[in-house]
Amino acid sequence: MFPFAARSYDFVPYVECRNWIGGEWCAAAGGEELEVINPRHGRAMGRVVVSGAEDVERAVAAARAAFPGWRATPLKDRAQVLYRLKQLMERDLEELTWLLSHENGKVYGQARGSVLKGIECVEYGASLPNIAQGTQLDVSRGINCEVTYEPLGVCAGIVPFNFPTMVPLWMLPQALVSGNTFVLKPSEQVPYGAMKLATLFAEAGLPAGVLNVVNGTRAAVEALVDHEEIRAVAFVGSTRVARLVYARGAKQGKRLLCLGGAKNHLIVAPDADPELTAETVVASSYGCAGQRCMAASVMLAVGDVQGIIDRMVARTQAMELGGDMGAIINPAAVERIVGYIDAAERAGAKVLVDGRGARVAGAPGYWVGPTILDHVTPEMPAACEEIFGPVLSIVRTPSIDDAIAIENSNPYGNAAAIFTTSGAVARYVIERVSAGMCGVNIGVPVPREPFSFGGWNQSKFGHGDVTGYDGFRFWTRPRKVTSRWEIAKDATWMS
Ligand code: NAD
Questions:
Q1: How far apart, in Å, do the first and last CA atoms of the chain sit?
Q2: Which amino acid residue places its CA nearest to atom 40 of ligand 1?
C-alpha cells in the first residue's frame, strides 16, 4: 500500500498522510493540512492532516472497541504479529530506509541503522511470551499469592521528528503484546514512518483498531493527554514539551513516562587511546547530524589531549556533507544551530571547524556542516543548552574532578561517557556522573535490548525506562491474586 519508490536521494513526491483509525485511512475532521518537507531538498514531498479532539475521540473509540478482543487473544498469539512484522520490515527494509531518509534528511546508512534498531525492538516484543510470566508463592499455610501483569486498556504514544520509525517501536511492541490498544501521534514533520508501520502491522495481522495513528500537532497531543479513557501516555521529545505533557497528564492521575532533551558530556582523559577516541567522539557528534538525544555535545578535554583534538579536526574536515552527514530538519533549526556557533565565537570560543553556510550540490535544503568549537567556557550557551545539531563544544578542564563538576552542573542527564585506558579512572568517573546512560570508550551509549533506555534529571519525567523489560512494566499493571483451596486446620493471620 502506498509504496515509496525512491532508491536514491533524488527528490520524489509522496501521498497525503491521513489518520489510521479502526483499520482505515481517513481525513481529519477539521480539514487542515501541513506540508511534509524533504529537508535535503527543502521541498514539500507531501501533506499531512492536522487532527483535533474530534479525531482523537474517534481513534479512542476504535481502540476501546478493539480492546476486549485483543486482550482476550493469548499473549503468544499477540506476539506472533511481531514475528510477522519483523519479517515484513526486513522485506521492506530498502523502502523504510529511503522513506525515512527523505522525510527526515538522514543519510542512507544512518537511516538504515535506525530501521534496524527498530527491528531489534520488535524482536524484544516478540520474545515477551518467554519472559513476561508472573510470579507465585505460597505465602502462608494453604494460601497462595500470584502476580500477573495485565494490560491497562487504551494507551497513547507521542514521538519526535528525529527517529520516525525507531522511537514508535520503543513503545509499540511491549504495549501491544501486553494486550493494550494504542493511539500513536507521530511528529507532524515526519509522519510517513508511522504510516508505513501502520500498514505493516495490518499486513502482519494486527486486528483493526488495536493500533491507531492520529496526525497533528499540539491540539492532538492535548486531546490525547486530556482524554479520560487513555490510561497511560509515553512521550519522547524536547524537555519543554515533556514537562508540559507530564504536568498536564499528572493532573488527571495518568500513568506517564516523558523522555526529554539532552546535553551529553564526553570526558576525555589524557591517557585515552587517540585513534579510538577521535573516531568515536566525531561519530557521536555528527551521526544523524547531531539530531539525536544521545549525540556528544560537550567534550570535556582533561589536561593535554591536543593530539586527540588534532585528529578529530582532521576527521571532521574530511567528512562529506550529504554523504557522511545528512540535512537539518528545518530552517528554524538551522538558524538556532548557527546562532549558538555565532554566540560562542563572539564570546571568545575558537571555531576549529566551521559548518556555517555549508551547502550540498544539487540539494538546496537545510544544512549545517560539522562544527568544532574549542575553548568554550561552561557558562556559554553552547556548553550548557541543547543545540540539537552537528556542533561539538570543547571545554578544557585541568582535572577529572573539574570535568565531573561541569557534567554534574548540567540540568540534563541522558548520557555521559569517559574515554580512558585506565579502569580505575573509568570507574571513578562512571560512579560520579549524573546521567542514566553511560559509556566507557563508547560515544553513543545506547543500551540495547533487553536493557532499557532512559536518562536522568530533566531528560526524563516519570519512573522507569521506555524499552526493554521496563517498557513491559510501564504498559502493564500487576494483579495480585491471593487464594485458598482448603480450610486450613490451624488458624493463620489470613483466617
Ligand atoms: P518536540 O518536543 O518539539 O516534539 C515532540 C512531539 O511533541 C511531537 O509529536 C510534536 O508534534 C509534539 N509537540 C510539539 N510542541 C508541542 C506542544 N507545545 N504541546 C504538545 N505537543 C507538542 O521535539 P522534536 O523537535 O520533535 O524532537 C527533538 C527533541 O526530542 C530533542 O530535544 C531531543 O533531545 C528529544 N529526544 C529525546 C529522546 C530521549 O530518548 N530522551 C529521544 C529522541 C528525541
A1: 61
A2: 259
Strand order in the sheet with 264-268: 350-353, 371-374, 391-397, 296-302, 264-268, 415-419, 437-440
Distance 240 CA to ligand 1 centre (A): 8
Task: Give pLDDT, residue 495.
Answer: 53
**What is residue 461's predicted lDDT score, i.e. its pLDDT?**
98
Q: How far is the CA of 237 from the centre of ligand 1 (A)?
A: 3
Q: What is the chain's mean pLDDT, rounded?
A: 97
453 located within any domain: no
pLDDT at 485: 85
Question: Quick one: cell of 315?
Answer: 576527521
Same domain, 330 and 405: yes
Judge if 372 and 239 occupy the same domain: no
CA 267 to ligand 1 centroid distance, Å: 27
Q: Give tens-digit pLDDT for 35-84.
A: 999 999 999 999 999 999 999 999 999 999 999 999 999 999 999 999 99
Q: Are residues 464 and 345 in the same domain?
A: no
Instruction: Flag residues of the chain having pLDDT under 70.
Output: 487-495
Read out DSSP for 244-308? HHHHHHHHTT-EEEEE----EEEEE-TTS-HHHHHHHHHHHHHGGGG-STTSEEEEEEESS-HHH
- Structural domain that includes position 279: 264-440
Decide if 215 contacts 34 (C-beta within 8 A).
no
Could you tell me the CATH number of the domain that includes residue 317?
3.40.309.10
Ligand 1 contacts (CB < 6 A) are 158-162, 167, 185, 187-188, 217-218, 221, 236-238, 241, 244, 259-262, 293, 386, 388, 414, 455, 459
Catalytic residues: 293
Kindly state whether residues 97 and 182 are assigned to the same domain: yes
Q: What is the pLDDT of residue 162?
A: 98
Considering its fold, how many domains does the chain have in total? 2
Give pLDDT, residue 486: 79
CATH of the domain at 73: 3.40.605.10
User: Does 58 lie in the same domain as 184?
Assistant: yes
Q: What is the pLDDT of residue 103?
A: 98
